[in-house]
Amino acid sequence: MMHPDLFTSLTIGGIHLRNRLLRSATHESMAEESGAPSSAHEKLYTALAKGGAGAIITGYAGVQQDGRSSLPGMLMMHDDSLVPAYRRLTDPVHSHGCPIILQLAHCGRQTRSAVTGMKTVAPSALRDRIFNEEIPRELDEEGIRAIIASFAAAAGRAARAGFDGVQLHLAHGYLLAQFLSGYTNRRRDRWGGPLENRFRIVSEILLRIRRELGDYPVLAKISAYDRRPGGMRIDEAVGIARLLEASGCSAIEVSSGTVEEGLSIMRGPELPIEPLLACNFRFAAMPMPLRKFMTPLLRLGMRLPEPVTNYNVEAARAIRRAVSIPVIVVGGIHVQEDIAAAFGSGAIDCVSMSRPFIIEPDIVRKLQDGRRTASRCIRCNYCAIMIEHGPLRCWYGKLPKM
After folding, report:
1. Do the Cβ atoms of 195 and 220 come closer than 8 Å?
2. What number of other Cβ atoms are within 10 A of residue 271's Cβ?
3. List of residues 6+ apart from 298 with CB closer than 8 A
């Protein structure tokens, strides 16, 4: 049975949530070439708002051109000219009583210069195992300062565009997560080494936003753990959560994993080999016989992470015990009983979901009305891979003829 408090309101940093079930940031691959939201975004976000989401967190929006994703259709918020287009997105969402939060990101080494037209950058010059075409340029002091300024400027544009707040993407191996992790940050200056130094870029972004925008809500999404050697572990994530609270962060969303680990972020019961071979930039250009040869190799080389449900709940509880700001948990929470269990202990303030909203934008309304006890999502993860092929949609484990 659904926990009744899930459908009560909550205020996060001044943002009034109508319930505790949020749409987590999901890349939609729908943006215009400029990075402006498209009419498809407006249609999707309006459906999510009408469908009862407590709040919508957008797909990630880039703060600099060199931080643009290798995936097509990434939102951008790097230029003032984009603000009017975003206003056309926020107004209809608000008309349905739903707050909307813009997620801000820089992809760091998790992109390709063939896409951005610029050299990839990172805290340290370490090649990524997925995007391993080049060694990224290690950021110098001037480059770090420019990124801090870019995040703050993007937050200012978000405020002018009518967003209720922003979320800093500190998870999944993107640039700010690269600074936080000892696996990707090998620096010996004031931006590396002890956790406080690795956190410095985040604290300075938060300080700059607070200085320029006052109490404008700023949330953060973090990976509480990963499987990288010397990477993130829950005890260190707890330390990051405390630093976030001390720096004025409004709420923390708890996720896990990095893109380099494959399917640790969005887990499922089966390896999505077919869409990987059909659409991933590494395999799609291969001749068909070679792609068929890759199938058994991928099955041998890719490990399915376990568990496939509720895999961030314990980490979120550990973080919630350490801070007084609201904590949101995301990750394989698709069933009514699991949602209630995650929330029911009182240790977690909100549950966020991604894939259930792809197949059913009105999943919250259905759960609230008793028309649904579990998401229809089968966790095939075709949605996460097929965005290299076109706009976000549910494929339900079946591909068209390519």
Report:
1. no
2. 17
3. 271, 273, 276, 277
Are 351 and 3 in contact by the 8 Å Cβ rule? The answer is: no
Tens of pLDDT along 113-155? Answer: 989 999 999 999 999 988 877 899 999 999 999 999 999 999 9
The angle, 0 to 180 degrees and rounded to 10, between the axes of the packed helices 234-246 and 313-322 is 40
Mean of per-residue pLDDT scores for the chain: 93
Structure confidence by residue, pLDDT tens digits, 47-92: 999 999 999 999 999 999 999 998 999 999 999 999 999 999 999 9
Enumerate the β-bridge partners of residue 122. Answer: 138
Block residue for tokens 């209720």: 164
Q: Which two tokens stand for residue 235?
A: 């005890």
User: Structural domains in the chain?
Assistant: 4-263+307-386 (3.20.20.70), 270-303 (no CATH)
Helix axes 83-95, 39-50, angle to 10 degrees: 20
8 Å CB contact between 351 and 357: no
Q: Cα–chain-centroid distance for residue 142?
A: 27
Locate 354 and state its tokens: 């991604």
* Structure tokens given for 156: 């200012």
In this prediction the pTM is: 0.96
* Residue bearing tokens 């405020």: 159
- Distance, CA of 278 to CA of 63 (rounded, Å): 30
User: Could you tell me how far CA 359 lies from the centroid of its own chain?
Assistant: 18
244-255 tens-digit pLDDT: 999 999 999 999
CA 39, 45, 47, 50 torsion: positive or negative? negative
